[in-house]
């Protein structure tokens, strides 16, 4: 019986549609980029297709493949998003699997990730039985340039909280522990709060009027240090 691991499409070719949208193969109905916005090199080396390759390498079905009439997934249960596993790095950029977990307070995803639009934005990851007490969630966030320091707090399941500040554009990392209390819960709920939600126009950056708190790029949940 064929399996996802036998698929070689994401390593060998891309399908380009007449409107410039790009798909990982002829069976997928979901885009991983558009040539009107991204170069073919950016798409080929982008997080969306790299994430798809990782899933296939682990014989897992990526959301990009859901409902595709492909022999490599026929007969398999692909109606549900494969939950994250210990060691996974979950990306929140456009077309990446993280879109399934953004639950409240987020703008439309962009190529690099997603901006929050409220003072609090939420992510809900389905828990799996391999999350370990003492594991760590490394959350990569992105800040906009700001005249005043912006405080960012990350809370998991209304218990563990880590706070930091930023005043310049760029990515920064917050590491938060996974406690026994969280391991026993059905979902890993992450709340990201920003003290100042202002538009880039209000910050004097550009003409973008969207209210923006903080951006998220990825979450990496990994084992406790030995």
TrEMBL record:
Q: Which CDD domains match?
A: SPASM (cd21109)
Pfam families for the chain: SPASM (PF13186)
So which domain of life are we looking at?
Bacteria
Q: Which residues form the 4Fe4S-binding SPASM domain?
A: 7-66
Q: What is this protein called?
A: Iron-sulfur cluster protein
- Origin organism is Azospirillum brasilense
């Amino acid at each position: 019986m064929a399996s996802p691991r036998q698929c070689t499409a994401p390593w060998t070719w891309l399908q380009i549609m007449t409107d410039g949208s790009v798909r990982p193969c002829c069976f997928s109905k979901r885009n991983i980029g558009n040539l009107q916005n991204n170069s073919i090199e950016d798409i080929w080396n982008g997080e969306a297709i790299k994430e798809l390759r990782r899933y296939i390498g682990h014989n897992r079905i990526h959301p990009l493949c859901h409902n595709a009439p492909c022999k490599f997934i026929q007969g398999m249960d692909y109606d549900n998003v494969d939950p994250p596993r210990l060691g996974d790095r979950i990306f929140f950029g456009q077309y990446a699997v993280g879109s399934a977990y953004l639950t409240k307070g987020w703008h439309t995803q962009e190529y690099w990730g997603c901006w929050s639009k409220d003072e609090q934005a939420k992510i809900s990851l389905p828990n799996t039985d391999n999350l370990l007490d003492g594991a760590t969630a490394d959350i990569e966030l992105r800040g906009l340039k700001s005249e005043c320091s912006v405080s960012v707090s990350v809370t998991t399941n209304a218990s563990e909280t880590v706070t930091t500040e930023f005043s310049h554009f760029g990515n920064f990392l917050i590491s938060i522990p996974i406690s026994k209390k969280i391991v026993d819960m059905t979902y890993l709920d992450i709340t990201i709060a920003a003290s100042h939600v202002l538009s880039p126009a209000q910050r004097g950056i550009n003409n973008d009027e969207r209210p923006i708190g903080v951006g998220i790029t990825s979450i990496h949940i990994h084992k406790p240090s030995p």
